[in-house]
Protein 1
Amino acid sequence: MMNELTPALIAEHQIEAGWHFGLTAQARWSDLDGFSHVSHRTHLVWFEEARNAYLAALGFPLVSADVPGPVIRELACSYERSLGFGDGVVITARTVWFGRTSFGMDYAVWRQGLVARGNAICIWFHNRASSKVPLPLALCDGMRLDGAAFRSTQAPRESRLFGLSQTNPAAA
């Protein structure tokens, strides 16, 4: 999958400045909960799809047991508005920081304005070896082009979504 974000989609869905990567999706019947709203789990699936497509666009396709790739350490989502069956959306993704073995991503779902916002901390992990490994330099270079900054300290950070204090995993 490739970057589908265009100036027309940015204008139509009122996407904030600073987003350079996005995918389109349409809410399916199976995405609905008992109240006919798009379920909270669907947003998390959309974030995962956007993350995988974003990494593939940077030259790192889906992983296997023998190829390192991202695993989720932390994931959060804040919902602003509901969606219904058939609603078309744009899901945006960007890297906001990276460290030696981890990185942080922001996500958003848009439909004529913000619908949901999320973030994740990902660890670059080798499944067969069952251990985290350093991020590839080429991946870091791609993240820098997206505006991400390297973090090398263990300073505490504040969660942008929920104000929770935690240790920065970037130096892990």
Protein 2
Amino acid sequence: MRRLLLLAPLALLSACAAAQEFGSGVGAAATAPLDDFNLRREYIPTVLLQAEANPYDRRNLNHCTTIAAEVTRLNEALGPDGDEPPAPDGSTLGERAADAAAKAALDAIRDASTDFIPGRSWIRRLTGAEQHSRHVQSAIQAGRERRAFLKGLGIQRNCAPPASPAWFRPRGGSQR
């Protein structure tokens, strides 16, 4: 009976577009313990490592185009900034609900695959996985700081978005 309850949501998911996303995510969720044993590491994009080294570096930021290019590189690594409206994906309410159900199911699989590890926090510390996880989070935070700094610099230089926040309208014409 318990297995039937677990399989029912999977059967519903197989009928929708989220099934493909769910299927590709099952492997990653099931192999989550590899992260805990530091056998698999999350990739840190170069632009985030550069931001971590010096988030307030002003070299080669003389023109709006170079600021915009740097913001674009950070957007590719971090995703859209909080000041940008979400891109319309054309999905229906049912599709968004199916995506949410698929995400919840993947989270449950990931939790189940990592919960069986006794002393998980100690294993993460001893293998270096916890240190790497902190490094990833530090690089993400530095990337966000750099993007905010660049957009502030873009406002100062009267640049149009993406070199400045989406709400900013340059006075007159933007600089180059």
